[in-house]
Design brief:
The chain is built from 30 helices and 19 strands. It is α+β, with helices and mostly antiparallel strands. A five-stranded mixed sheet has the order 6-5-4-7-8, sandwiched between helices. A five-stranded mixed barrel has the order 11-12-13-15-14.
Length: 762
């Protein structure tokens, strides 16, 4: 890595160069982001995961820039085009756009109008015109280049060829490109119009049949909506500033005076802009707009995924899980406290009174037989009817009844992971098991599913899939390592995301565990095939072993720091286990005594926190939630009702809330709070419990508009409004649509009504 980049990144992120250097060295040595953030605080100066990830990503960008720079230098050198001046310019380029602008005139290109003119020997005429001397007579000078041999038949043809050369120079001039690029971003407008004859077929994009918006302010979701309409063949998009603004700027840069030669240059400037520079800039700016829109959409998805993964777990309980259904019945499974499948069955609640009575007897018998402590009910079709049935059959009050978001459960049930776990059971049983396990530990179960199948994003299929996957992987890794993993019960999929491991080592750990029994200590991990000292260093602190030979193995204290805890215990005259039990003993410890060149107070403070609460779970305490009684279908919902709900998805235009009627309602961004809200994540998070007021219900289109404002009937400020695109919902998994996406700029009330779609999932 180029040393000067440390200062550059430090300035951009407002950290010290030494922090960037230390982070770069640790990353270069194979350390993971969670490991660096948790166990190398002294080296990085207490940088958190966000800062470390930003440094990692910026280092990758600059490395890519260097790679491209070296390729350009090599190409120029091989063609004997590299000069000291050109090399200096290339070395000084700090962005990919600046680098490509410098290289553009030297890039091998196909045959253009300018190259044809050069072949005809017209470059000297172009140089003469560009000099723009008052005494130059273009027609007279051009006549000298008439040549039957070279294919120049007239003075006008010669001038046209010279203008082609000038036009190409205009389009390739680095300063002109930089100024034009800035103009596109600052004053450019994106315009959308419907393709003639596609009005009926493309009605879902009606909002964009005649639409324009400044490039500088178009929000992510609207840009992605327009691009989707273009991709599907219904819209035409154009992105450009006013042509006269661009040509005036270029004229100021290239045209000097008003002599005849200057007029030829002016004509060439206009041609160069319209034919060459504008299309090039439009392509470049559209790509950058797409990148920014992707970045914003991916950030929304990542935030939602984090909240979902870190949802409070019920914990290890005996669970009866139900995957509701009408015609095919309710799939039932019983799980023990480790999530092991003990029993499965099918209940028919709606076919007849006899079958309903039989189902009641079955549930009661199973609850008694397996000492059931909680019942998980999937929130799909027939969920509220199933919940109502379960609550009315007279189960012990100690049994908790919980509705569970089953988004993506069908994806898991049909996956290779599920087939390996349950080779002798069909997809219905696997899906019910997933619902039950999600209640016990959402994180452990959801890591088995591709995050893109969970349905908590917006326009997830339109964004850069590589960038999306990288971001979501970062979130999953962060969440898994933040919580920690019990190595003796964790699935292979969960272990895969532990710092320093990966699919192969995770598989080896599970195989070793199956062959040799539970791990007795962290040190025993070194006996796992291919798990060497480096992987152990990265992973050990995030792996927990309850009932280990060493009590610290159940905590987040890293084995490399065990000797410090041993020293603390000796100094206060007790055993390590006593330090965990007795706060008064911990108060006797003077941390400054244990500071060394490598271990500082940040690490020592972390150790003390772990001794106080070994292996603490950062997730919130589980709270039982119940939907409003008697509100089970959309026909039960009336304007003015105040209902409890759970946030299922947060987007740039608002939040979708499950109120228990198989149909999520939309709280538009203008109805999230009494104050102006720019980012919905400022107010709500996925899985948050909220109280909402029903604004309106559209039974025909199955849409519900909700509000979280104290006075929902008060109209919002116009700067809060946003308009929907009318898209059909995306499918996050087979059978159930994901909420539709936003778009333009009409009334807030109709927007809220039109946006409410079914929740994602099965």
């Amino acid at each position: 890595m180029n040393e000067r980049y440390f200062d550059k990144i430090a300035g951009e992120l407002k950290v010290r160069p030494q922090q960037v250097r230390a982070t770069a060295e640790l990353l270069g040595g194979g350390a993971t982001v969670p490991f660096i953030a948790r166990y190398r605080k002294e080296a990085t100066g207490m940088l958190d995961e966000v800062a470390i990830t930003a440094i990692r990503d910026r280092l990758e960008q600059l490395t890519e820039l260097d790679t491209r720079r070296n390729a350009i230098l090599k190409s120029l050198e091989e063609r004997n085009l590299l000069t000291d001046e050109l090399k200096s310019k290339l070395d000084a380029a700090e962005t990919m756009a600046a680098l490509e602008d410098i290289y553009l005139p030297f890039r091998p290109k196909r045959r253009t109008r300018a190259t044809i003119a050069k072949e005809k020997g017209l470059e000297p005429l172009a140089d003469l015109l560009l000099a723009q001397q008052p005494e130059t007579a273009p027609e007279v000078e051009a006549a000298r280049f008439i040549s039957e041999e070279k294919g120049v038949a007239s003075a006008e043809e010669a001038l046209a060829g010279a203008r082609d050369i000038i036009a190409e120079r205009v389009s390739e001039d680095p300063q002109a490109r930089e100024k034009t690029r800035a103009l596109f971003f600052e004053k450019g407008v994106i315009r959308s119009r419907v393709i003639v004859g596609k009005e009926t077929e493309g009605v879902k994009f009606k909002d964009y049949f005649e639409w324009s918006e400044p490039v500088a302010t178009v929000p992510s979701h609207r840009l992605l909506a327009m691009r989707r309409g273009e991709k599907e063949g219904f819209l035409v998009l154009e992105t450009a500033p006013e042509e006269q603004d661009a040509t005036a700027m270029l004229e100021a840069h290239f045209v000097r005076g008003t002599c005849p030669a200057s007029e030829q240059v002016r004509l060439a400037v206009h041609d160069g802009y319209k034919r060459l520079l504008a299309p090039s800039m439009e392509t470049e700016v559209r790509l950058e707009m797409k990148r920014r829109a992707d970045e914003a959409a991916i950030a929304v998805f990542a935030q939602n995924l984090r909240e979902l993964l870190l949802a409070p777990p019920l914990g290890q309980k005996n669970v009866l899980a139900l995957d509701p259904g009408y015609r095919t019945g309710c799939k039932l499974v019983c799980l023990d406290r480790q999530g092991k499948l003990l029993h499965h069955d099918v209940l028919y609640l709606t076919h007849s009174q006899r079958e309903a009575a039989q189902a009641e007897a079955t549930v009661k018998a199973l609850c008694e037989k397996f000492n059931i402590e909680a019942i998980a009910i999937g929130n799909g079709t027939a969920s509220r009817e199933t919940e109502s049935f379960i609550r009315k059959i007279g189960l012990p009050a100690s049994i908790v009844i919980v509705m569970v978001n089953e988004s993506g459960a069908s994806v898991y049930s049909a996956s290779e992971v599920a087939r390996e776990e349950f080779p002798d059971h069909d997809v219905t049983v696997r899906g019910a098991v997933s619902i039950g396990r999600r209640l016990m530990d959402p994180l452990a179960e959801l890591v088995k599913i591709d995050p893109k199948s969970i349905g908590v994003g917006q326009y997830q299929h339109d964004v850069d899939q590589t960038a999306l996957q990288k971001s979501l992987d970062d979130v999953v890794i962060s969440c898994v390592n933040s919580v920690g993993v019990e190595v003796n019960t964790a699935s292979q999929q969960l272990l895969t995301y532990v710092s320093g491991l990966g699919p192969q080592l995770a598989k080896n750990i599970v195989e070793y565990r199956n062959q040799n029994g539970p791990f007795r200590s962290r040190k025993q991990l070194l006996e796992v095939p291919r798990l060497g000292p480096k992987a152990f260093e990265q992973a050990a602190g995030f792996l927990r072993i309850r009932n280990s030979d060493n009590v610290l193995d159940a905590s987040a204290v890293h084995p490399e720091s065990y000797h410090l805890v041993d020293a603390m215990a000796r100094d206060v005259g007790c055993q390590v286990a006593d330090l965990l039990r007795d706060e008064s003993l911990r108060r006797k410890i003077d941390l400054r005594k244990y500071v060394t060149d490598k271990v500082g107070l940040p690490t020592l403070n972390d150790i003390m926190q772990e001794l106080a609460k070994p292996g603490r779970d950062p997730r919130q305490q589980f709270e039982v939630f119940q939907f409003a009684e008697g509100i089970e279908k959309i026909e039960d919902v009336k304007p003015g009702m105040k209902l409890p709900g759970i946030v299922t998805n947060v987007t740039a235009f608002g939040a979708f809330v499950d109120i228990g009627v198989h149909q999520d309602g939309l709280v538009h961004v203008s109805q999230l709070a009494d104050r102006f809200v720019k980012d919905p994540n400022e107010v709500v998070k996925v899985h948050q419990k909220v109280m909402v007021t029903v604004l309106e219900v559209d039974l025909e289109r199955k849409r519900i508009a909700l509000s979280m404002r104290s006075n929902p009937t008060a109209g919002p400020r116009r700067d809060q409004a946003d308009r929907p695109s009318g898209h059909r919902p995306e499918r996050s998994s087979p059978g159930r649509p994901k909420p539709q996406q936003p778009a333009g700029h009409t009334g807030w009330f109709s927007e809220a009504l039109r946006q409410a779609k079914r929740k994602p999932g099965l």
